[in-house]
Fold each of these.
Amino acid sequence: MGGIFRRPVLLIGLVVTLALVGVALLSLVWTPSLPSKMNIVQRLKPPLGPGGLFGTDQFGRDVASMLMVGAWNSLSTSFLAVAIGATVGSAVGVIVAMRRGWLELIVMRGCDIIFAVPPILSAMMLGAFLGSGRFTAIIAIAVFMVPVFARLTLAGAKQIWARDYVTAAVGIGRSKAKITLVHILPNISNQIIVQVTIQLGLAILTEAGLSFLGLGMPPPAPTWGRMLADSQTFFGQAPWLAILPGMAIAVAVLGLNMLGDGLRDMLDPKTKAG
Amino acid sequence: MQTIFSWSQVSRRGVMALALGAGVAFAAPYAQAAPKTAATIGMTVEPGGLDPTIGAQVMIGQVTWQNVFEGLTTIDKAGKVQPQLAESWDVSPDGKTYTFKLRQGVKFHNGVAFDSSVAKFTLDRARGADSVNPQKRYFTSIDTIETPDAATLVLKLKQPTGSLLYWFGWPAAVMVEPSTAADNKTNPVGTGPFVFSNWAKGTKVDLKKNADYWNKDISVKLETASFRFINDPQAQSAALTAGDVDAFPEFGAPELVASFEGNDKLATVIGNTELKVVAGMNNSRKPFSDKKVRQALMMAVDRAMVVEGAWSGLGTPIGSHYTPNDRGYKDLTGVYPYDVEKAKALLAEAGYPNGFSFTMKAPQMAYAQRSSQILQALFAEIGVTMNIETTEFPAKWVADVLKAADYDMTIVAHAEPMDIDIYARDPYYFNYKNPEFNAVLAKVEASTDASEQDKLYGEAQTILANDVPALFLFVMPKLGIWDKKLKGLWENEPIPSNVLTEVHWEE
């Protein structure tokens, strides 16, 4: 693992992600001021002035505090969604790899169907049934994560099933379930971890999109997406209201993608050999 | 390889193109010199139909009133009642018989003549048992309608109704031709200076000039007019700047108004409206059924903060359901002023020392969303938790709140002028029932003395300010942004409208 300093992409990704998680966790115990506290007299104050580090919004709320809490809301929603998606998807993938046959056909076509529906659209449909909110956002994002992980684990598991030692294990009469747990899963766990990191970036982007459309967490909980949506008409007067949450989203996604890329380079057996 | 044309042909064509181009270039200034005869008016929300006698949405009237449809009386830009399809009228000394002399030679757009039978049909339709007229109660005092001849309409009333002539000027009281009444929702036929020509749903409504308009004193300058519906304020601003829309009489975003200042093409005209932003409460649902709770919530609200935060400070705080433009206005913002400590104490007295939580059904419009968020923060100060549920306006809001009254609190701008009587209506979404208040309004109608009426309106305002059936927040300004060369639009809005009769272009 000492090679991390020779891998700048991984290093930058790791630092950005850790910083983000740190800020999100910090917001649970401390923010410069209460993010829902309005102070109309101090509205639309620019950054680095009396309005604080990142200025204030149209209600005079502290943008820095809102971004911090927004980081927690965004990351926690995305983590939960990806965790659900990865667990369900990987389970489906390895089970299908174990059974094969018509089950594989049905599940793969099912994945195609889910892939065909954009997450924003499925969130809007879910929102119509469940009402908009955090739960809807998590489910909507998780649903479109499932086929990603199902395909990945199925492809990986199929390769492992073809290995000689697995054939040997089958030969000595080990059950398929046991083989999956002992031989298959450990050998594809690296791929799953890499995919989780990459999908996290995508989940953050989707969560911001849903919040932008009003399908995310309801006010007063600050979210990056809604901060962007609210800033639209104020762009001429207060550009920082759009730029700051926009940068937060960009940095978070970039950081997680770099981390994912770096991890893949490090963990992938092919690149390791080269 | 075959050449398609020779070089000499090319050059010949080139010369011709040049000559044509030059011709166009010379002709163009002449084409522009003639005054424009088309105008595109922008509106934020598209109406659900185009018949103001069957739908409550103000947008219906803003497209059709005075443009397509006309009434017995009308309301001018100063808010005064003027004769229209009724030339004149006599009111009996006891105030119970109205004799209208109707205008002759007026034809509907489909060629049918307007006469007393049409007027009788319209009024009977509006007051009938199965009437869906949004102002049905305005017609309930009519006892009998007589039509001695084609030009005379006699109304016998059950009791004197002081506001009748004013109400007859409203969009909901416009004259409707019997054979088209059923289709007016999608194909309105009226007597006005403009004929409906097309409605591209989701985009625009087109009108064209009525060549046979009865009123020869008015020369309508516009040949065509369109109402374009653009919801997003940024898009409204872009459409104005690009010249796609000539006017936004009610521009959607106060925070963008400053960006038009100093614009040499667009004029910014800030006027009055009757748009009262109130947060209505379900007075029959706990805990809002307790007057003390409503009063405590009112004291938790800093109106100045709401105006500043929601509407960039462009707006006037109100203490009752009445605007400073209305007759007999009283400033009652001091009855329950912003006082967090008193609010907390009153809430404890009502049995909610630890507050409570409820849901606000807020429409998606910026003023409603922003005001809700400010109210949410203000209520949090007294320990009350308000969850905001965005409710799509108009369809879902009308179904859930206005019709079904299935809500705790909502927020909406009441656009109709002098509509303090909505608190006397039963059923109405506030579920507010106060016989004392109803009695005061009944006295207003019984009286024919203007100063007496003004005094009674003052009493009615005071009752509401004390009872707080809704949280009275502020009156919206009319943010008019339009092309400087476009003249004749109303600066103020004594009644929600976009009257195009006098609109014209000036060079």
Amino acid sequence: MSAKSPLAQIHQHVMWNRLIAIVEEQAQTLIRTAFSTSVREAGDLAAAVFDQRGRMLAQAVTGTPGHINALASCVVHFIEAHPMDTMKPGDVFITNDPWLASGHQHDITVATPVFYNDVAIGMVANTCHVVDIGGRGFTPDGRQVYEEGLNIPILHLFREGVANETLFEIVRMNVRESKQVVGDIYSFTAANDIATNRLVEMMDEFAIDDLEGLSDFIVDSSRQATLDAINKLPHGTYENSLTMDGYDAPVILQAAVTVSKDNIHIDYEGTSPASSHGINVVLNYTKAYTTYGIKVAVAPDVPNNYGSIEPFTFSAPEGCILNAPRPFAVAARHIIGHLLPDTILGCVDQMLDTGIQAEGSASLWNIQLRSGPSVSTNTDFEGEIPEFEMMHFNSGGAGARPTIDGLSATGFPSGVKGVPVEATESIAPVIFWRKELRPDSGGAGRHRGGLGQAMELGGDGGAPFDVLAMFERVNNAPKGRHGGLDGSTGVVELAKGGPMRSKGQQPIPAHDRLVLKMPGGGGFGSPHDRPADLVASDVADGYITEASARDEYGVVLNDDGSVDSAATTALRALT
Amino acid sequence: MQNAAEIRLAVDIGGTFTDVALEQGSGADVIRTVTKTLTTHDAPERGVIIGATKVLDEARVAAADVTMMVYGTTLATNLLIERKGSPTALLTTEGFRDSIEMRNESRYEQYDLDIELPEPLVARRLRLPIPERVNVRGEVLIPLDEKAVAATVPTLEAAGVQSLAIGFLHSYVNSDHERRARDILAGLLPDVEISISSEVSPEMREYERLSTACANAYVQPLISNHLARLESELERIGISCPLYLMLSGGGITTLETARRFPVRLVESGPAGGAIFAGHIARSLGIDDVVSYDMGGTTAKLCLIDDGQPHTSRTFEVARIYRFMKGSGLPLRIPVIEMVEIGAGGGSLAHIDSLGRIAVGPESAGSEPGPASYGLGGERPAVTDADVVLGRIDPQNFAGGTMQLDRQAAEAALSAHVGDALGLGASDAALGVSEMVDENMSNAARVHAIESGEIIEKRTLIAFGGAAPLHACRIAEKLNMPRVVIPPGAGVGSAIGFLRAPVAYEVTRSFHQRLSTLDAAASNALLEEMRAEALRVVSAGAGDEPLVESRYAYMRYVGQGHEVGVEIPIRIEQVRLDDESGGSLLAAFEAEYNRLYERSIPDLDVEILSWVLTVGTEPAPVETADIDHDVSVDAPIPDGSRQLIESATGETVSAPVFERDKLSAGQRVAGPAVIVETNTATVVTSRYDALIHHDGHIILDRRPDGILGSLGGLS
């Protein structure tokens, strides 16, 4: 398809859209059939199609950045291990190796070659989070990856249509909830089959024998669109650093973003060394959230594929927390990974006249709970302690934007969705006593940071349980920008008093409750520039208190809640 | 509900037009009169009266002789989209006042830092927390604080609240607290309407349930007033027959039910369209259908099996961002399941940042409209592409009432699409048309997959102003052998209203594992649901025979999405028994296999919700064989046009026929164009058209019209 007729040219546009529809079908199939809460409720997945060289051509819009961009890097490893010309129809490959795929063993990647006229012309693949992978489970407490469960190297899951029963048997014996995990692996395979069939139908319809012409077109036009966006930016190096809580010691994320012709390079030199606990990030996952963070700021409209992400390069020193080597522990790597976009946006803010979104809560506040007679010992609980393991997704506040307020209790950068309280209470013996917005937690500003949320939960009937804590920004608040104030830090504590660590497995005693107050986003612009009537409205709605209106926004209210204009002008003039 | 003496009137209020259809008699002898009048937004009932009077005059029927009227309206939808409902408050469990604001805590578009979330219908200051708590089993953990309920009165009065929603956690299991709070406030605030979530939407998932209850409360006072005014206006002009309301789920109901649950009126117009298509499918004896309704702004597609449109229990209204999932308000009500995308005649085309042709969802609307309207629109719309490709005759648009400017269409297509790609105006038009057709085909395909269905081999039933222009190409893309273009397609929804059964659907959340199924409790629940549905339906159905259907929504324990399975029991018999766990499991596995081509051994299955529908039997049809009456008289063309074909990009000379002049049994070979007042049917060279004696244009793929190969392009 080199010298293109007008119709052939139009068909390339059409087929590009078709590919995006195909991977969306693949993603929807995963959501409908998965057992894993994080896939079915939260969309914690990636689905994509690749050409013969392992270049990603299209990915489903459903999914989360950490998986999507990691999957983009992963498929080449399958092709290196099993060159395309050695693959046979009916072959399906699998891995969950953190260093090859998306950074922790809970994520399983399944890749299937696509054959057309008996030639392997590309691959379809997906990455999804499974319920359990054995070991300590989803917790940052591990010291080495070996403690974090089962590692599956690149293996045949099916060989010419025949299931690898040895592998399935090993999986069954090494994970909690083995039926669900094995069921999920079958789902992942079936979703790839659907995408494969669609791809073959498309090739029939448009009478093409391979994907090469189409993939060059997609990759080249996407690369060019990204380059056009990059080349509008002022050249230079912009630095930013974030200090985070870490597991037991602060972690510094240091980034230098260099814009030059046709390239943006992000260098993480100066970042803290790898942690002794499972919050370390492998290079693939660092790349995933780095790419997302820069792309969402400078070229958001370009679909994710090999070409659109190629102009973004990055480096992280070996042994730092963003390039942790085997066998460092990595299970809770999202805690640090989710902070990379905020680190990068701090650099982007310096290159754009308008500025960009302030820092936010960033890391998801996932609540992973575990209970059972073998978990909660030495308890004075009178009843039977129920056996369960559950996860509930939650988000704090996002940063304020240059022209609008931040989003309250909304995840950024992660794309996962929360689960209703009623749904969680129907599958696990817990009671949520509170889950609502947290007043005054959004950083004050011309545009207010998004509010975090306050949550309180206990065991059904007061039963004890453990929390596998992995919460960030308890000691380090999300920063405001351009005069906007910081958001609130998070709080992890027991209802009856007594602080808790923000990370690691800890007991919630019988008849006590876990209290979480999630961070709010940073503000944007001076709070004194926020129109006083908006401030009064925020007080009426309880988003902020009257004290915050006065002390941070310089707005004085009358008894009826309306703005006292004279007093406000006077107060705002003082500072 | 049809017999020869009946005179039935249907009115469908849309955003621009109010459509009216009047039918006398039944079956093949039905006499139909239709009209369109402009919607009167300030007082929609005025447009109803104008339209009704007009159609009665045309049909020479006296108002008093009308025996039945069905009414559907976008009013509820518009109130939600424009946020013009009544001042509304929400009483909710203390600690959970923000669930309608926190939504599902995610961004519906990950690559736009500046998205905004839909504004909650009830402001935080009017979301009033009440101490109370029920657990997932319905046990009371904290009794209702009745004093706190009564203490909300001053706040409600000061805010001028006209309508109130009450939604407590787990009220779908135990609604005592909601009902008690309603009783307390009904006594203290007699003029305030009260919606409780356990009645409006008794299902698990607090965000969706409370969102639905708030939406119901938000539109209730205005809908109620409108319906009261409508009733008295109708009476004034002498229409005193029973009035039914079209529901989003595809049934019709009484005024009383509509007043209580006005949220169920949302999207009743499109539901009427799907019923219309379903009726045609039955009359033609076609089992597997996709209805395709393409207007000025959007296209809507619905899967129809055995004449029954697919239904769903979730819907999202008032999307604020490119019709994108997640950018609207979720409603958990029975709806006819449709996919809607921003692809209509007015959808604008441009070149995106990657140099690709992109179409919609932005629309030119009716003003300025597409460039060819000559009303100041400079950007090319799908209609402009249709003009350039020869599908629309610029001299004879909208029945000749409007002249289109082909040069303006070409200039717009060149300037905004062609120039950037080195394509001329006609190739640019081809690109725009292909892209919009591809978008609609992809939406249909993904929608089918989400429903576990296959789109290929289905019959496409196309209506709405723009659909006949694009239907044949979409059928080619989706490998569909047959397309039906019914007559009267311009007022399809209103006609559909007259085909809808009197029906009501009741839903309950009630958790059961099949391995430990409590047959007695399940039977009691079904009995209660049946009684509720019967109460509603019998008010409107009179002595009509009723049919009942029951579905259980099931999943493997641990999954998150349920599959609806018809409960295998017989009416009027002992319902579930000790054996039922096994038969439900077998039915579930069969359905799961059909959807996903496998089932999973050794896992227990659970039921989350139960759905029971009682309704009158669907309007009878006389099945008409499609092929039996082919005549040998070839029709004589009324002219010819240069038509550019999408599949090949070639320009062909296509004969033009006037639909009115074609008679039953005549065949037209593609390529051809069959024109009528408001649209034109494009017959591509892979299809032949047959005029059916019911007036349909039936497009059949020619045996040699091989699809899936576009020879000569690579």
